[in-house]
Design goal:
The protein has 410 residues and is an alpha/beta fold. It folds into two domains: 221 residues, Mur-like, catalytic domain (UDP-N-acetylmuramoyl-L-alanine:D-glutamate ligase); 157 residues, Alpha-Beta Complex (Protein-Tyrosine Phosphatase, Chain A). Helix content is 47%, strand content 18%. The chain contains 17 helices and 14 strands. The strands form two sheets. It has an eight-stranded mixed beta sheet, with helices on both faces. Strands 9-10-14-11-12-13 form a six-stranded mixed beta sheet, sandwiched between helices. Helix 13 links the parallel strand 11 and strand 12. The longest helix has 28 residues. The protein is globular, with a radius of gyration of 23 Å. One of its GO terms (molecular function) is ATP binding.
Length: 410
């Protein structure tokens, strides 16, 4: 047989297989009436879990899939398992997730966007998920080499997951960034639902205190609005969210208690761009306003000096810390820029290349009767060692216990 005929026949067979696979995928999508595609710079995994938990609590049979610290499939009973990947991550695995959800006979599927390249984000929505409800948690100046050159470029890239003829939710507060999402919603015939400051303010500290981890009010407000729009009352949805497992990379709180002294350490290393880090710091300082001392711990890396300088420039506009401790390597870049920005030298302690045990001693030396320490910057090196230290020294308490303790200490 002529070689060209063999090639043509093979191409025809592949084409037919592709058409069949697309047909089956469309059929599977049609069997899941609620499809929620979650995108954004920060909080995607948490919001995915919160929405799924709220829907489950309201009696809607739901599956979810996150791609955060560890990719996970969350089943209708709330149990979960790691997503098997035979090789590197590929957005086509979303087809397997949809297929699995159909076999489980779910009514809702909540999927975290796993694409970074703008064209792949759009492909994920238009071909793979075709969501009824979209989410863009926020748009921050991160991954600018891929989605930049600025936050507007990031918003444009994230808007690739706006559904066609559906509803898109966002907790992004800046008008110019939200305007980009609004334009995409108009182009695709979707309704934009902004979660503004007044809605975020409706999430009380009592609501947040019942979580076993540190949860952002923006994320909770966003998830609650979606659950409410899908017929789940607020209290039921919240109860489900409180009971759900958190993502492995979520901020957690650890407490060291000694006679006459208490230190709470918060793992905030995951949010490493200046805007997200500042948002986390301000939220925690507001939440624990009664502590005597607030200590900002920045774990630096000599190969990430740009990030260190950016954080040093940004932190002067955050809620003030009583002291700043710099660990890791390349701390001089942070210290020099922080001093230039107006932070006094006596409020800075450099712990260059110090082990975790020495850093803890430094932190305790800066503590009063009650102190809040937030670890930021990078998890590598001393950051991971510090996290291991606090995990071994004290299991994560529930957040409400920490809140009560601080009130008593005040």
């Amino acid at each position: 047989m002529d070689g060209s005929l063999l090639i043509a026949g093979g191409a025809l067979a592949l084409s037919a297989a592709g058409v069949a696979e697309t047909w089956w995928h469309q059929r599977n999508l049609s069997r899941i009436p609620i499809r929620i595609h979650v995108n954004g710079t920060r909080g995607k995994s948490s919001v995915t879990r919160l929405i799924a938990a709220g829907l489950r609590a309201g009696g809607i049979r739901t599956c979810a899939k996150t791609t955060g610290t560890v990719p996970r499939m969350i089943f209708p009973d709330g149990s979960e398992a790691a997503v098997f990947r035979p090789s590197r991550a590929n957005i086509m695995e979303q087809r397997r997730i949809v297929r699995a959800a159909v076999k489980l006979e779910v009514k809702a599927l909540v999927v975290e966007c796993m694409a970074l390249q703008p064209q792949l984000q759009s492909l994920s929505e238009l071909r793979l998920i075709q969501s009824t409800h979209g989410v863009i948690t926020n748009a921050r100046a991160d991954h600018l080499d891929v989605m930049g050159p600025d936050v507007i470029g990031v918003a444009q890239a994230l808007s690739g997951t706006v559904p066609i003829g559906g509803t898109i939710y966002t907790a992004e507060q800046r008008n110019e960034v939200r305007g980009v999402i609004a334009q995409a919603a108009e182009d695709r015939g979707s309704r934009l639902v902004p979660i503004l400051d007044d809605s975020v303010a409706d999430v009380t500290w009592d609501d947040l205190a019942t979580f076993s981890h540190i949860e952002h009010p923006d994320n909770v407000a966003l998830a609650l609005r979606i659950c409410t729009d899908l017929g789940i009352d607020r209290r039921t949805a919240l109860r489900g969210m409180w009971q759900a497992d958190a993502d492995p990379g979520v901020m957690r709180l650890y407490r060291l208690t000694e006679p006459e002294r208490e230190m709470v350490f918060v793992n905030g290393f995951a949010a490493n761009d200046p805007e997200s880090t500042g948002h986390s710091w301000n939220t925690l300082v507001d939440r624990y306003e009664r502590v005597e001392r607030r200590i900002a711990l920045f774990n630096c890396r000599h190969d990430r000096t740009d990030r260190s300088r950016q954080l040093a420039e940004a932190c002067v506009d955050w809620r003030p810390a009583d002291h700043y401790v710099l660990s890791g390597t390349g701390t001089e870049a942070f210290a020099r820029r922080a001093i230039q920005m107006g932070i006094s030298r006596d409020r800075l302690t450099c712990a260059e290349r110090r082990p975790a045990s020495e850093i803890v001693n430094l932190l305790q030396g800066q503590s009063g009767r009650s102190s809040l320490v937030v670890g930021m910057g990078n998890i590598a090196g001393p950051g991971m060692d510090l996290l291991d230290f606090f995990q071994n020294a004290q299991s994560p308490p529930d957040a409400s216990a920490a809140t009560l303790s601080f009130q008593e200490a005040a």
